[in-house]
Amino acid sequence: MDTTVENKTALKGAEFLVKESAPEDVFTPEDFSEEQLMIKDMADQFISKEITPIVDRIDKLEEGLMPSLLEKAGEQGLLGASFPEEYGGLGKDFVTATIINEGLGAGHSFSVAMAAHTGIGSLPILYFGTKEQKDKYIPKLATGEMKGAYALTEPDSGSDALGAKTTAKLTEDGKFYILNGQKSWITNSGFADVFTVFAKIDGDKFTAFIVDKGTPGFTLGAEEHKMGIKGSSTRQIYFQDAKVPAENVLGEIGKGHLIAFNILNIGRLKLCAAALGAAKKCINTSVQYANTRIQFKQPIANFGAIKHKLAEMAIRTWTSEAALFRTAQLIDDKEKELFAAGKPFNEALLGAAEEYAVECAILKVNGSEVLDYVVDEGVQIHGGNGFSDEYIISKAYRDSRINRIFEGTNEINRLLTLDMTLKRAMKGKIDLMNPAMNVLKELMDIPDFGSDDETPFAKEKKLLANFKKAILMTAGAAAQKLMAKLENEQEILMDIADMAIETFVAESALLRLIKLTDSKGEDAAALQADMVRTYLYDAADKINKSGKDAINAFAEGDEQRMMLLGLKRFTKAEPFNTKEARRRIADKLISDNKYPW
């Protein structure tokens, strides 16, 4: 494992709200190494050659097909890329693993099976297993010889994971745990060889177990009939006095929540990566259809309404990509820092992912909702044909919907975004109080109506700084006014989370643009500037709306009027012709007949 950490100033988790990042300190897709570009191409080629031609066969759950595809991916090193070399992996860094997840994200049901196997199906054992457990399972999971699954959800406990009712009781001789209970929505369950299962010992000690396929008392239900991702195996699993060897306890007894929640941080980022890969493919499909579909004696790509859709699909995808790889590198750098400080590799990565848990939650929401937008507009561009199963865009539309539920619903992740940020502040990890107080003082001052700053992107930087002030003002006042009651005001929490999500994505995109402009020149980055300026212009209105809804829910009288005036000041964007910007972006997509960035 490469432990080199470049000399740069990295923000702590959630610190983007109160501090600026320098463009040169931020990693962007333009920084991919030659090796990373080759690996990305290998993943793209795997999807186009091995998956896309047989998606219909995959959706029919053809016996043995999905396992064989996972094995093929394993032979190419795509499954074990981020696993340590000592366990048969390639030992690649976190950014490279994220690149693979993006590349394989365009594979519909295969992407789901692959992500479940390499993520939640394998990582609990890799990060929390004993040496004996890792030696037994990880080399085979890395190659695809064994397939993994993860059994946390139950019929009555989804978002409330700790409400699980599956029980585990130690036998009198201390050699086995007897499991009883039921798990639902278990991806890969139809063919998995090894399951990470969560159960409560003595009714309260939430604990993880490694359960092998074929364990006596362990049975599978029938395949679920799902709206989308039909080719992924999803079944309920049952434990009726299932005998699991005591040495198969994973991690510490009573500490299963550490496994469940820490693995989810990584899973959320990887879901965003997969959604990004799927979004790019759907844009390609939509552009190519728009270029060939003739109406009124010309391709529909010529029409402004279609250009608006294509451009917006590209804008949301490009900006989401900026946020994704910015965060992936932050995690990678923190992992190397912790590793260099003597932490074992598993604690280093988990610690790094926990540090940026807020950003991972943001990415999960943003990535899944960007893909939902892209596939929805893709169907619309296809018109009536988009509603036909003969066109792959209809499959993409159905397959996308699960992403807003996977890895914690988007509502849960919105709530977590603010909850984890406030907890980091209360623990002294970031200073939110002083910046929030400064913003409230600023509201009393005479507004700065203009600036003589003519440096590149000065107006965009100021607008972004004002977005952060809007968040600090709203969140600070809500916390001060509602105090402990705030946690029950989910609507307010989600409004403020939406403000934070828009701001993090906008800042990531602006930093990517500035870095690109500095290296390639203004002309080379002109279309990317159109994308970022359009995103910022629209984000101002979205942040204003979310802020108003939040403020109106807890403030009244003079306080309300003052804050609404402040919000208006902080979300005031310069006039910008987004129509022409979108047309320029769309014309590039149309001329290239694909997503070109």
From TrEMBL:
It catalyses: a 2,3-saturated acyl-CoA + A = a 2,3-dehydroacyl-CoA + AH2. Residues 149-241 form the Acyl-CoA oxidase/dehydrogenase middle domain. It comes from the Bacteria. Residues 33-145 form the Acyl-CoA dehydrogenase/oxidase N-terminal domain. It comes from Chitinophaga silvatica. The lineage of its organism: Bacteria, Pseudomonadati, Bacteroidota, Chitinophagia, Chitinophagales. Keywords: FAD, Flavoprotein, Oxidoreductase. Residues 466-569 form the Acyl-CoA dehydrogenase-like C-terminal domain. The keyword Thylakoid does not apply. InterPro entries: Acyl-CoA-dh-like_C, Acyl-CoA_DH_CS, Acyl-CoA_Oxase/DH_mid-dom, Acyl-CoA_Oxase/DH_mid-dom_sf, AcylCo_DH-like_C, AcylCo_DH/oxidase_C, AcylCoA_DH/ox_N, AcylCoA_DH/ox_N_sf. Belongs to the acyl-CoA dehydrogenase family. GO terms for molecular function: acyl-CoA dehydrogenase activity; flavin adenine dinucleotide binding. Its cofactor is FAD. The keyword RNA-binding does not apply. This is Acyl-CoA dehydrogenase. Residues 254-416 form the Acyl-CoA dehydrogenase/oxidase C-terminal domain.
